[in-house]
Design the sequence.
Protein backbone atom coordinates (compact mmCIF):
# COMPACT_ATOMS: atom_id res chain seq x y z
CA UNK A 1 0.00 0.00 0.00
CA UNK A 2 1.37 3.40 -0.93
CA UNK A 3 2.68 5.43 2.02
CA UNK A 4 0.38 8.37 1.30
CA UNK A 5 -2.68 6.13 1.48
CA UNK A 6 -1.47 4.61 4.73
CA UNK A 7 -1.17 8.08 6.28
CA UNK A 8 -4.71 8.99 5.20
CA UNK A 9 -6.11 5.81 6.72
CA UNK A 10 -4.15 6.40 9.93
CA UNK A 11 -5.48 9.96 10.26
CA UNK A 12 -9.07 8.77 9.69
CA UNK A 13 -8.73 5.96 12.23
CA UNK A 14 -7.11 8.09 14.91
CA UNK A 15 -8.79 11.43 14.16
CA UNK A 16 -8.72 13.75 17.19
CA UNK A 17 -11.89 15.70 18.04
CA UNK A 18 -11.66 19.44 17.55
CA UNK A 19 -11.84 20.38 21.23
CA UNK A 20 -8.97 18.00 22.01
CA UNK A 21 -6.89 19.38 19.15
CA UNK A 22 -7.47 22.91 20.42
CA UNK A 23 -6.49 21.89 23.96
CA UNK A 24 -3.31 20.27 22.67
CA UNK A 25 -2.51 23.42 20.70
CA UNK A 26 -2.91 25.51 23.83
CA UNK A 27 -0.56 23.19 25.71
CA UNK A 28 2.08 23.22 22.99
CA UNK A 29 5.19 25.07 24.25
CA UNK A 30 6.22 28.18 22.31
CA UNK A 31 8.80 27.82 19.59
CA UNK A 32 12.32 28.41 20.80
CA UNK A 33 13.12 31.11 18.24
CA UNK A 34 14.14 34.79 18.47
CA UNK A 35 11.94 37.67 17.32
CA UNK A 36 13.76 38.09 13.99
CA UNK A 37 13.21 34.45 13.04
CA UNK A 38 9.54 34.57 14.09
CA UNK A 39 9.08 37.64 11.87
CA UNK A 40 10.58 35.86 8.86
CA UNK A 41 8.34 32.84 9.39
CA UNK A 42 5.04 34.58 10.07
CA UNK A 43 5.06 38.32 9.31
CA UNK A 44 3.52 39.42 6.02
CA UNK A 45 3.64 43.09 5.02
CA UNK A 46 0.73 44.44 3.01
CA UNK A 47 0.67 47.21 0.43
CA UNK A 48 -1.48 49.44 2.68
CA UNK A 49 1.17 49.86 5.35
CA UNK A 50 4.44 49.07 3.59
CA UNK A 51 6.27 50.22 0.47
CA UNK A 52 7.64 46.68 0.09
CA UNK A 53 4.72 44.24 0.59
CA UNK A 54 5.36 40.55 1.05
CA UNK A 55 7.08 38.30 3.61
CA UNK A 56 9.30 40.02 6.13
CA UNK A 57 12.99 39.67 5.25
CA UNK A 58 15.67 40.40 7.84
CA UNK A 59 18.14 40.75 4.99
CA UNK A 60 16.59 44.03 3.91
CA UNK A 61 17.23 45.80 7.22
CA UNK A 62 19.86 43.64 8.94
CA UNK A 63 20.54 46.28 11.59
CA UNK A 64 17.07 45.62 13.07
CA UNK A 65 17.80 41.95 13.77
CA UNK A 66 19.81 42.43 16.97
CA UNK A 67 17.44 45.11 18.25
CA UNK A 68 14.44 42.77 17.90
CA UNK A 69 16.28 39.77 19.34
CA UNK A 70 17.28 41.77 22.43
CA UNK A 71 13.66 41.26 23.55
CA UNK A 72 14.50 37.58 24.18
CA UNK A 73 17.55 38.40 26.31
CA UNK A 74 16.68 37.44 29.89
CA UNK A 75 18.92 40.12 31.47
CA UNK A 76 17.58 43.00 29.36
CA UNK A 77 14.69 44.96 30.81
CA UNK A 78 14.66 48.02 28.54
CA UNK A 79 15.54 48.48 24.87
CA UNK A 80 16.13 52.03 23.62
CA UNK A 81 16.25 52.73 19.88
CA UNK A 82 17.17 56.29 18.88
CA UNK A 83 16.56 56.37 15.16
CA UNK A 84 16.00 58.48 12.05
CA UNK A 85 12.91 58.27 9.90
CA UNK A 86 12.73 55.73 7.06
CA UNK A 87 14.75 53.00 8.74
CA UNK A 88 12.07 50.45 9.72
CA UNK A 89 12.01 51.16 13.45
CA UNK A 90 8.22 51.00 13.80
CA UNK A 91 8.10 47.70 11.90
CA UNK A 92 10.60 46.28 14.39
CA UNK A 93 8.22 47.34 17.17
CA UNK A 94 5.33 45.53 15.47
CA UNK A 95 7.45 42.40 15.05
CA UNK A 96 8.22 42.40 18.78
CA UNK A 97 4.58 42.94 19.59
CA UNK A 98 3.47 40.07 17.31
CA UNK A 99 6.14 37.80 18.77
CA UNK A 100 4.92 38.51 22.30
CA UNK A 101 1.29 37.73 21.37
CA UNK A 102 2.22 34.43 19.72
CA UNK A 103 5.10 33.24 21.90
CA UNK A 104 4.60 34.73 25.35
CA UNK A 105 1.01 35.95 25.84
CA UNK A 106 0.87 38.52 28.63
CA UNK A 107 -0.75 41.94 29.14
CA UNK A 108 0.71 44.56 26.79
CA UNK A 109 0.51 48.32 26.42
CA UNK A 110 1.40 50.30 23.30
CA UNK A 111 1.73 54.05 23.88
CA UNK A 112 1.62 56.72 21.17
CA UNK A 113 1.77 60.52 21.51
CA UNK A 114 -2.02 60.93 21.21
CA UNK A 115 -5.21 58.87 21.40
CA UNK A 116 -5.99 59.75 17.78
CA UNK A 117 -2.67 58.36 16.59
CA UNK A 118 -3.21 55.21 18.67
CA UNK A 119 -6.57 54.67 16.97
CA UNK A 120 -5.04 55.22 13.55
CA UNK A 121 -2.24 52.71 14.21
CA UNK A 122 -4.73 50.16 15.49
CA UNK A 123 -6.88 50.48 12.37
CA UNK A 124 -4.21 50.88 9.71
CA UNK A 125 -1.23 48.93 11.05
CA UNK A 126 -2.25 46.39 13.69
CA UNK A 127 -5.45 45.09 12.11
CA UNK A 128 -3.79 44.43 8.72
CA UNK A 129 -0.83 42.74 10.46
CA UNK A 130 -3.19 40.41 12.35
CA UNK A 131 -5.30 39.66 9.27
CA UNK A 132 -2.21 38.80 7.21
CA UNK A 133 -0.62 36.60 9.89
CA UNK A 134 -2.46 33.27 10.60
CA UNK A 135 -0.32 32.76 13.72
CA UNK A 136 -1.89 35.92 15.19
CA UNK A 137 -5.32 35.77 13.61
CA UNK A 138 -6.24 32.48 15.26
CA UNK A 139 -5.42 34.02 18.66
CA UNK A 140 -7.41 37.21 18.06
CA UNK A 141 -10.87 37.64 19.58
CA UNK A 142 -12.26 40.12 17.11
CA UNK A 143 -15.81 40.30 18.50
CA UNK A 144 -14.55 41.12 21.99
CA UNK A 145 -12.03 43.71 20.81
CA UNK A 146 -12.13 47.46 20.35
CA UNK A 147 -9.78 49.81 18.54
CA UNK A 148 -7.90 50.72 21.73
CA UNK A 149 -8.20 47.36 23.52
CA UNK A 150 -7.56 44.19 21.55
CA UNK A 151 -8.26 40.78 23.08
CA UNK A 152 -6.19 37.65 22.37
CA UNK A 153 -5.92 34.19 23.88
CA UNK A 154 -4.67 34.68 27.44
CA UNK A 155 -3.92 38.39 27.12
CA UNK A 156 -4.96 41.84 25.96
CA UNK A 157 -3.25 44.68 24.13
CA UNK A 158 -4.08 48.17 25.37
CA UNK A 159 -3.36 51.14 23.06
CA UNK A 160 -3.01 54.47 24.86
CA UNK A 161 -2.27 58.08 24.02
CA UNK A 162 0.38 59.73 26.18
CA UNK A 163 -2.04 62.65 26.60
CA UNK A 164 -4.35 60.45 28.73
CA UNK A 165 -2.70 60.07 32.17
CA UNK A 166 -5.64 58.10 33.59
CA UNK A 167 -5.30 55.42 30.90
CA UNK A 168 -1.54 55.19 31.40
CA UNK A 169 -2.01 54.45 35.09
CA UNK A 170 -4.89 52.00 34.76
CA UNK A 171 -3.51 48.48 34.13
CA UNK A 172 -0.56 46.28 34.94
CA UNK A 173 1.39 45.03 31.89
CA UNK A 174 4.39 42.81 31.17
CA UNK A 175 5.25 44.30 27.78
CA UNK A 176 5.39 48.06 27.35
CA UNK A 177 6.02 49.58 23.91
CA UNK A 178 6.47 53.34 23.55
CA UNK A 179 6.66 54.86 20.06
CA UNK A 180 7.80 58.40 19.13
CA UNK A 181 8.38 59.30 22.78
CA UNK A 182 9.88 62.71 21.99
CA UNK A 183 6.40 63.83 20.99
CA UNK A 184 5.05 62.89 24.42
CA UNK A 185 4.15 65.81 26.71
CA UNK A 186 6.30 66.57 29.74
CA UNK A 187 5.38 66.34 33.38
CA UNK A 188 2.72 68.66 34.82
CA UNK A 189 2.19 69.97 38.33
CA UNK A 190 -0.44 67.27 38.90
CA UNK A 191 1.05 64.28 37.03
CA UNK A 192 4.45 62.72 36.38
CA UNK A 193 5.65 62.54 32.80
CA UNK A 194 3.85 59.89 30.64
CA UNK A 195 6.87 57.59 30.42
CA UNK A 196 7.21 57.41 34.21
CA UNK A 197 3.49 56.74 34.56
CA UNK A 198 3.66 53.97 31.96
CA UNK A 199 6.74 52.39 33.56
CA UNK A 200 4.85 52.09 36.82
CA UNK A 201 2.49 49.61 35.09
CA UNK A 202 5.32 47.05 34.73
CA UNK A 203 6.29 46.84 38.41
CA UNK A 204 4.24 43.71 39.17
CA UNK A 205 6.08 41.67 36.50
CA UNK A 206 9.61 40.66 37.45
CA UNK A 207 10.43 39.84 33.82
CA UNK A 208 8.76 42.88 32.27
CA UNK A 209 10.13 44.27 29.00
CA UNK A 210 10.08 47.89 27.81
CA UNK A 211 10.82 48.99 24.25
CA UNK A 212 11.19 52.73 23.63
CA UNK A 213 11.84 54.26 20.23
CA UNK A 214 11.75 57.70 18.68
CA UNK A 215 13.39 60.21 16.42
CA UNK A 216 15.21 62.63 18.75
CA UNK A 217 14.32 66.30 19.08
CA UNK A 218 16.50 68.03 21.72
CA UNK A 219 19.22 66.86 24.10
CA UNK A 220 16.83 66.83 27.03
CA UNK A 221 14.14 64.98 25.08
CA UNK A 222 12.92 61.60 26.29
CA UNK A 223 14.78 59.38 23.80
CA UNK A 224 18.18 61.10 24.01
CA UNK A 225 18.11 61.13 27.80
CA UNK A 226 17.13 57.44 27.80
CA UNK A 227 20.01 56.66 25.42
CA UNK A 228 22.48 58.54 27.62
CA UNK A 229 21.21 56.75 30.74
CA UNK A 230 21.37 53.26 29.19
CA UNK A 231 23.80 50.75 30.73
CA UNK A 232 25.34 50.19 27.32
CA UNK A 233 25.14 52.10 24.03
CA UNK A 234 25.68 50.37 20.67
CA UNK A 235 26.33 51.78 17.20
CA UNK A 236 26.26 49.87 13.90
CA UNK A 237 29.61 49.31 12.18
CA UNK A 238 30.04 48.14 8.60
CA UNK A 239 33.15 47.00 6.67
CA UNK A 240 34.65 49.31 4.07
CA UNK A 241 34.48 47.48 0.71
CA UNK A 242 38.00 48.70 -0.10
CA UNK A 243 40.10 48.33 3.06
CA UNK A 244 37.89 45.96 5.07
CA UNK A 245 38.07 48.10 8.21
CA UNK A 246 34.83 48.35 10.18
CA UNK A 247 33.62 51.94 10.21
CA UNK A 248 30.69 53.88 11.61
CA UNK A 249 28.89 55.84 8.90
CA UNK A 250 29.05 59.56 9.74
CA UNK A 251 27.53 62.50 7.89
CA UNK A 252 30.79 64.47 7.82
CA UNK A 253 32.28 61.77 5.57
CA UNK A 254 29.62 62.36 2.91
CA UNK A 255 31.14 64.50 0.14
CA UNK A 256 29.79 66.21 -2.98
CA UNK A 257 31.10 68.93 -5.34
CA UNK A 258 31.48 72.41 -3.92
CA UNK A 259 29.11 75.14 -5.06
CA UNK A 260 29.54 75.82 -8.77
CA UNK A 261 27.71 78.14 -11.16
CA UNK A 262 27.28 75.40 -13.75
CA UNK A 263 25.71 72.87 -11.32
CA UNK A 264 22.37 72.97 -9.49
CA UNK A 265 22.13 71.61 -5.96
CA UNK A 266 20.34 68.52 -7.34
CA UNK A 267 23.19 67.89 -9.77
CA UNK A 268 25.73 68.33 -6.99
CA UNK A 269 23.75 65.97 -4.72
CA UNK A 270 23.67 63.31 -7.45
CA UNK A 271 27.46 63.12 -7.19
CA UNK A 272 27.45 62.55 -3.42
CA UNK A 273 29.51 59.63 -2.17
CA UNK A 274 30.89 58.42 1.14
CA UNK A 275 34.62 58.71 1.81
CA UNK A 276 36.01 56.02 4.14
CA UNK A 277 37.57 57.59 7.20
CA UNK A 278 40.17 54.80 7.33
CA UNK A 279 41.49 54.54 3.77
CA UNK A 280 40.00 57.56 1.99
CA UNK A 281 38.41 55.47 -0.76
CA UNK A 282 35.05 56.41 -2.26
CA UNK A 283 32.02 54.31 -1.31
CA UNK A 284 28.90 54.57 -3.48
CA UNK A 285 25.35 53.34 -2.90
CA UNK A 286 26.15 50.20 -4.86
CA UNK A 287 28.24 48.91 -1.94
CA UNK A 288 25.70 49.64 0.78
CA UNK A 289 23.74 46.37 0.70
CA UNK A 290 26.83 44.21 1.06
CA UNK A 291 28.18 46.42 3.83
CA UNK A 292 24.89 46.17 5.78
CA UNK A 293 24.82 42.37 5.51
CA UNK A 294 28.29 42.17 7.08
CA UNK A 295 27.58 44.90 9.65
CA UNK A 296 27.51 44.41 13.39
CA UNK A 297 26.50 46.32 16.51
CA UNK A 298 29.45 47.36 18.66
CA UNK A 299 29.56 48.85 22.14
CA UNK A 300 30.68 52.49 22.11
CA UNK A 301 29.89 53.25 25.75
CA UNK A 302 29.36 51.03 28.79
CA UNK A 303 28.48 52.11 32.32
CA UNK A 304 27.49 48.80 33.96
CA UNK A 305 28.63 45.18 33.79
CA UNK A 306 25.04 43.90 33.66
CA UNK A 307 23.14 45.41 30.75
CA UNK A 308 19.58 45.86 31.96
CA UNK A 309 19.05 48.83 29.64
CA UNK A 310 20.49 48.54 26.14
CA UNK A 311 20.58 51.57 23.84
CA UNK A 312 20.90 51.51 20.04
CA UNK A 313 21.62 54.50 17.82
CA UNK A 314 21.49 54.72 14.03
CA UNK A 315 21.36 57.45 11.37
CA UNK A 316 19.85 57.57 7.87
CA UNK A 317 23.15 56.80 6.13
CA UNK A 318 22.47 53.12 6.94
CA UNK A 319 18.96 53.07 5.51
CA UNK A 320 18.63 50.86 2.40
CA UNK A 321 15.66 53.00 1.35
CA UNK A 322 17.64 56.26 1.13
CA UNK A 323 20.52 57.08 -1.23
CA UNK A 324 23.55 59.16 -0.29
CA UNK A 325 22.38 61.77 -2.82
CA UNK A 326 19.01 62.07 -1.03
CA UNK A 327 20.81 62.91 2.20
CA UNK A 328 23.09 65.47 0.53
CA UNK A 329 20.14 67.15 -1.18
CA UNK A 330 18.11 67.29 2.04
CA UNK A 331 21.01 68.99 3.81
CA UNK A 332 21.67 71.56 1.08
CA UNK A 333 18.00 72.50 0.98
CA UNK A 334 17.76 72.95 4.75
CA UNK A 335 21.11 74.37 5.84
CA UNK A 336 20.04 78.04 5.59
CA UNK A 337 16.65 77.59 7.28
CA UNK A 338 16.77 76.88 11.06
CA UNK A 339 13.40 75.11 11.04
CA UNK A 340 14.31 72.87 8.10
CA UNK A 341 17.81 72.29 9.47
CA UNK A 342 16.40 71.11 12.79
CA UNK A 343 14.23 68.60 10.93
CA UNK A 344 17.29 67.37 9.02
CA UNK A 345 19.37 66.98 12.17
CA UNK A 346 16.54 65.15 13.97
CA UNK A 347 14.96 63.06 11.22
CA UNK A 348 17.98 62.28 9.05
CA UNK A 349 20.98 62.32 11.38
CA UNK A 350 19.04 61.12 14.47
CA UNK A 351 20.82 63.75 16.55
CA UNK A 352 19.32 66.25 19.01
CA UNK A 353 18.93 69.84 17.90
CA UNK A 354 20.26 72.84 19.74
CA UNK A 355 20.66 76.29 18.21
CA UNK A 356 24.10 77.23 19.48
CA UNK A 357 23.71 80.83 18.35
CA UNK A 358 21.58 81.64 21.40
CA UNK A 359 21.85 78.76 23.85
CA UNK A 360 24.44 79.13 26.59
CA UNK A 361 25.79 76.88 29.32
CA UNK A 362 26.46 77.37 33.03
CA UNK A 363 30.19 77.31 32.23
CA UNK A 364 29.82 80.27 29.88
CA UNK A 365 28.05 82.26 32.62
CA UNK A 366 30.81 81.50 35.12
CA UNK A 367 33.35 82.56 32.49
CA UNK A 368 31.78 86.06 32.68
CA UNK A 369 33.23 86.72 36.15
CA UNK A 370 34.99 90.04 36.62
CA UNK A 371 37.49 91.16 39.24
CA UNK A 372 34.77 92.96 41.21
CA UNK A 373 33.58 91.07 44.32
CA UNK A 374 29.95 90.61 45.36
CA UNK A 375 28.05 93.60 46.79
CA UNK A 376 30.41 96.09 45.10
CA UNK A 377 29.20 98.28 42.23
CA UNK A 378 31.65 98.48 39.29
CA UNK A 379 33.13 101.95 38.84
CA UNK A 380 31.70 102.23 35.33
CA UNK A 381 28.12 101.64 36.55
CA UNK A 382 25.54 104.46 36.57
CA UNK A 383 22.37 102.62 37.64
CA UNK A 384 21.30 99.51 39.55
CA UNK A 385 18.01 97.63 39.20
CA UNK A 386 16.58 94.39 40.57
CA UNK A 387 14.16 91.57 39.87
CA UNK A 388 12.24 89.33 42.28
CA UNK A 389 10.70 85.94 41.46
CA UNK A 390 7.95 85.04 43.95
CA UNK A 391 7.58 81.39 44.95
CA UNK A 392 5.24 79.61 47.39
CA UNK A 393 7.62 79.58 50.36
CA UNK A 394 10.44 81.94 49.39
CA UNK A 395 11.63 84.72 47.07
CA UNK A 396 14.52 84.74 44.64
CA UNK A 397 16.14 88.11 43.96
CA UNK A 398 18.91 89.58 41.86
CA UNK A 399 20.52 93.05 41.73
CA UNK A 400 22.35 94.15 38.58
CA UNK A 401 24.49 97.23 37.85
CA UNK A 402 24.22 99.00 34.49
CA UNK A 403 26.52 101.21 32.46
CA UNK A 404 26.68 102.69 28.97
CA UNK A 405 25.32 100.60 26.07
CA UNK A 406 23.63 98.21 28.52
CA UNK A 407 26.93 96.88 29.85
CA UNK A 408 25.93 95.11 33.07
CA UNK A 409 27.09 92.99 35.98
CA UNK A 410 25.27 91.05 38.66
CA UNK A 411 26.40 92.44 42.01
CA UNK A 412 24.25 90.34 44.34
CA UNK A 413 21.59 87.62 44.30
CA UNK A 414 20.01 85.23 46.76
CA UNK A 415 16.91 83.69 48.31
CA UNK A 416 14.77 85.52 50.87
CA UNK A 417 12.08 84.15 53.19
CA UNK A 418 9.81 87.17 53.62
CA UNK A 419 8.66 90.44 52.11
CA UNK A 420 10.50 92.26 54.90
CA UNK A 421 13.75 90.63 53.79
CA UNK A 422 13.16 91.82 50.22
CA UNK A 423 12.48 95.39 51.42
CA UNK A 424 15.68 95.34 53.51
CA UNK A 425 17.80 94.11 50.60
CA UNK A 426 16.40 96.62 48.11
CA UNK A 427 16.94 99.53 50.50
CA UNK A 428 20.54 98.58 51.25
CA UNK A 429 23.04 101.13 49.81
CA UNK A 430 25.62 99.58 47.46
CA UNK A 431 28.98 101.31 46.92
CA UNK A 432 31.66 101.38 44.24
CA UNK A 433 35.40 101.55 45.00
CA UNK A 434 35.25 105.35 45.12
CA UNK A 435 32.67 105.27 47.88
CA UNK A 436 29.78 106.48 45.71
CA UNK A 437 26.48 105.08 46.95
CA UNK A 438 23.74 103.49 44.82
CA UNK A 439 20.22 102.45 45.70
CA UNK A 440 18.05 100.19 43.58
CA UNK A 441 16.39 102.54 41.09
CA UNK A 442 13.58 100.10 40.27
CA UNK A 443 12.74 96.55 41.25
CA UNK A 444 10.21 94.54 39.21
CA UNK A 445 8.35 91.96 41.33
CA UNK A 446 6.71 88.95 39.70
CA UNK A 447 2.96 89.01 40.34
CA UNK A 448 2.04 85.83 38.50
CA UNK A 449 2.04 83.56 41.56
CA UNK A 450 0.91 85.58 44.61
CA UNK A 451 -0.77 88.58 43.01
CA UNK A 452 -2.52 89.97 46.10
CA UNK A 453 0.52 90.00 48.37
CA UNK A 454 2.71 91.31 45.55
CA UNK A 455 0.31 94.18 44.87
CA UNK A 456 0.16 95.05 48.56
CA UNK A 457 3.98 95.07 48.77
CA UNK A 458 4.26 97.34 45.74
CA UNK A 459 1.70 99.79 47.23
CA UNK A 460 3.83 100.14 50.36
CA UNK A 461 7.08 100.48 48.36
CA UNK A 462 5.90 102.16 45.17
CA UNK A 463 8.83 104.59 45.12
CA UNK A 464 11.13 101.72 44.02
CA UNK A 465 8.96 98.59 43.47
CA UNK A 466 6.62 97.80 40.56
CA UNK A 467 4.51 94.68 39.99
CA UNK A 468 5.26 92.78 36.80
CA UNK A 469 4.10 89.75 34.86
CA UNK A 470 5.20 87.98 31.71
CA UNK A 471 3.39 88.60 28.44
CA UNK A 472 1.19 85.72 27.33
CA UNK A 473 1.91 86.48 23.67
CA UNK A 474 4.85 88.05 21.80
CA UNK A 475 4.79 91.86 21.91
CA UNK A 476 6.03 94.47 19.46
CA UNK A 477 8.09 96.11 22.24
CA UNK A 478 10.14 94.58 25.04
CA UNK A 479 7.76 95.88 27.71
CA UNK A 480 4.73 98.04 28.20
CA UNK A 481 3.30 99.73 31.27
CA UNK A 482 -0.30 98.81 32.04
CA UNK A 483 -2.33 99.40 35.20
CA UNK A 484 -3.50 97.05 37.93
CA UNK A 485 -7.23 96.65 37.30
CA UNK A 486 -8.21 94.69 40.40
CA UNK A 487 -10.93 96.97 41.76
CA UNK A 488 -10.93 95.62 45.33
CA UNK A 489 -7.15 95.93 45.67
CA UNK A 490 -5.27 98.78 47.33
CA UNK A 491 -3.04 98.70 44.26
CA UNK A 492 -5.88 99.55 41.87
CA UNK A 493 -4.59 101.97 39.27
CA UNK A 494 -0.88 101.48 40.07
CA UNK A 495 1.45 100.68 37.15
CA UNK A 496 1.94 97.04 36.09
CA UNK A 497 4.87 96.12 33.84
CA UNK A 498 4.03 93.58 31.10
CA UNK A 499 7.34 91.99 30.10
CA UNK A 500 8.14 90.01 26.95
CA UNK A 501 10.47 87.49 28.55
CA UNK A 502 11.38 85.88 25.21
CA UNK A 503 13.02 89.09 24.00
CA UNK A 504 14.99 89.66 27.20
CA UNK A 505 16.19 86.04 27.28
CA UNK A 506 17.44 86.53 23.72
CA UNK A 507 19.34 89.61 24.89
CA UNK A 508 20.87 87.84 27.88
CA UNK A 509 21.96 84.85 25.79
CA UNK A 510 23.55 87.09 23.16
CA UNK A 511 25.35 89.34 25.67
CA UNK A 512 26.75 86.43 27.70
CA UNK A 513 28.85 85.63 24.63
CA UNK A 514 30.57 89.01 24.74
CA UNK A 515 33.98 89.03 26.42
CA UNK A 516 33.97 90.18 30.07
CA UNK A 517 34.79 93.88 30.21
CA UNK A 518 33.73 94.57 26.63
CA UNK A 519 31.02 97.08 25.79
CA UNK A 520 27.55 95.61 26.18
CA UNK A 521 28.73 92.46 27.99
CA UNK A 522 26.50 90.67 30.53
CA UNK A 523 28.75 89.80 33.48
CA UNK A 524 28.74 88.36 37.03
CA UNK A 525 30.77 89.19 40.12
CA UNK A 526 33.97 87.41 41.14
CA UNK A 527 33.19 84.12 42.91
CA UNK A 528 29.70 83.71 41.44
CA UNK A 529 28.13 80.42 42.55
CA UNK A 530 27.30 77.49 40.27
CA UNK A 531 23.65 77.26 41.38
CA UNK A 532 23.03 80.76 39.99
CA UNK A 533 24.74 79.85 36.71
CA UNK A 534 22.69 76.66 36.40
CA UNK A 535 19.41 78.48 36.94
CA UNK A 536 20.24 81.31 34.53
CA UNK A 537 20.92 78.70 31.81
CA UNK A 538 18.04 76.37 32.74
CA UNK A 539 16.24 77.19 29.48
CA UNK A 540 17.21 76.85 25.83
CA UNK A 541 15.54 77.97 22.64
CA UNK A 542 13.86 75.29 20.56
CA UNK A 543 11.36 75.07 17.73
CA UNK A 544 7.77 74.48 18.80
CA UNK A 545 4.58 74.17 16.80
CA UNK A 546 1.90 76.71 17.63
CA UNK A 547 -1.13 77.71 15.61
CA UNK A 548 -0.08 75.52 12.71
CA UNK A 549 3.37 77.09 12.36
CA UNK A 550 6.83 76.54 13.82
CA UNK A 551 8.24 79.24 16.11
CA UNK A 552 11.21 79.40 18.45
CA UNK A 553 10.49 79.55 22.17
CA UNK A 554 12.53 79.39 25.37
CA UNK A 555 11.76 76.13 27.21
CA UNK A 556 13.28 74.50 30.28
CA UNK A 557 15.93 71.95 29.41
CA UNK A 558 14.19 69.27 31.47
CA UNK A 559 11.22 68.81 33.80
CA UNK A 560 11.34 70.20 37.35
CA UNK A 561 14.46 72.31 36.78
CA UNK A 562 14.75 75.63 38.65
CA UNK A 563 14.96 78.79 36.52
CA UNK A 564 14.16 81.41 39.18
CA UNK A 565 17.35 83.44 38.77
CA UNK A 566 16.74 83.64 35.02
CA UNK A 567 13.33 85.18 35.72
CA UNK A 568 14.96 87.60 38.17
CA UNK A 569 17.48 88.70 35.54
CA UNK A 570 14.72 89.18 32.97
CA UNK A 571 12.89 91.49 35.37
CA UNK A 572 16.09 93.32 36.33
CA UNK A 573 16.79 93.99 32.64
CA UNK A 574 13.22 95.13 32.04
CA UNK A 575 13.49 97.45 35.07
CA UNK A 576 16.66 98.96 33.59
CA UNK A 577 14.83 99.43 30.29
CA UNK A 578 12.01 101.25 32.06
CA UNK A 579 14.57 103.52 33.75
CA UNK A 580 16.11 104.44 30.39
CA UNK A 581 19.27 102.34 30.47
CA UNK A 582 19.54 102.47 26.68
CA UNK A 583 20.14 106.22 26.82
CA UNK A 584 22.78 106.38 29.59
CA UNK A 585 25.60 106.88 27.10
CA UNK A 586 23.91 110.01 25.74
CA UNK A 587 24.49 111.80 29.03
CA UNK A 588 28.25 111.70 28.54
CA UNK A 589 27.99 112.63 24.86
CA UNK A 590 25.64 115.62 25.40
CA UNK A 591 27.59 118.90 25.01
CA UNK A 592 27.50 121.33 27.96
CA UNK A 593 24.73 123.88 27.98
CA UNK A 594 26.04 127.15 26.49
CA UNK A 595 26.10 130.24 28.70
CA UNK A 596 23.37 132.55 27.40
CA UNK A 597 24.73 135.74 25.84
CA UNK A 598 23.61 138.95 27.42
CA UNK A 599 22.29 141.29 24.77
CA UNK A 600 23.86 144.80 24.89
CA UNK A 601 21.48 147.33 26.37
CA UNK A 602 20.19 150.23 24.33
CA UNK A 603 20.84 153.91 25.33
CA UNK A 604 17.18 154.29 26.18
CA UNK A 605 17.40 151.36 28.63
CA UNK A 606 20.50 152.86 30.23
CA UNK A 607 18.71 156.19 30.66
CA UNK A 608 15.70 154.53 32.27
CA UNK A 609 17.99 152.49 34.52
CA UNK A 610 19.75 155.52 35.84
CA UNK A 611 16.62 157.69 36.07
CA UNK A 612 14.12 155.10 37.35
CA UNK A 613 12.54 157.76 39.55
CA UNK A 614 12.02 160.19 36.73
CA UNK A 615 8.27 160.01 36.97
Sequence:
Amino acid sequence: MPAAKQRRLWRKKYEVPGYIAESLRMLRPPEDIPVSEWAERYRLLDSKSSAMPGPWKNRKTPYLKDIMDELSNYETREIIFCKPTQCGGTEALLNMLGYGIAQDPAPMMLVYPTDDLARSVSKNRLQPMIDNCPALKRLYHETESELLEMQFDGMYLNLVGSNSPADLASKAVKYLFLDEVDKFPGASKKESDPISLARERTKTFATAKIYMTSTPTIKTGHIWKALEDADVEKHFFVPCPHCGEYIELKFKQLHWPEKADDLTISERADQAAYVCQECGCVITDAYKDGMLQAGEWRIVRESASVHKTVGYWLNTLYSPFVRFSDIALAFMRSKDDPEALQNFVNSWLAEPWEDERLNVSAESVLAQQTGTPAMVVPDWAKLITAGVDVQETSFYWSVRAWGDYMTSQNIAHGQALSWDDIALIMNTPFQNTRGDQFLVALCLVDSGYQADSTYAFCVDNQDWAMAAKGASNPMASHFRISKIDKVDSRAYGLPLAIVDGEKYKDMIAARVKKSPGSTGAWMVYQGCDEEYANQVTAEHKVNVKTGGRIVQRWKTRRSHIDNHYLDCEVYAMAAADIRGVRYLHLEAERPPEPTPKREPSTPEENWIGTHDNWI
Remarks:
- Residues 182 and 221 are 6 Å apart (CA to CA).
- The domain at 362-589 is CATH 3.30.420.240 (Nucleotidyltransferase; domain 5).
- Residues 607-615 have pLDDT under 50 and may be disordered.
- The first helix runs from residue 3 to 13.
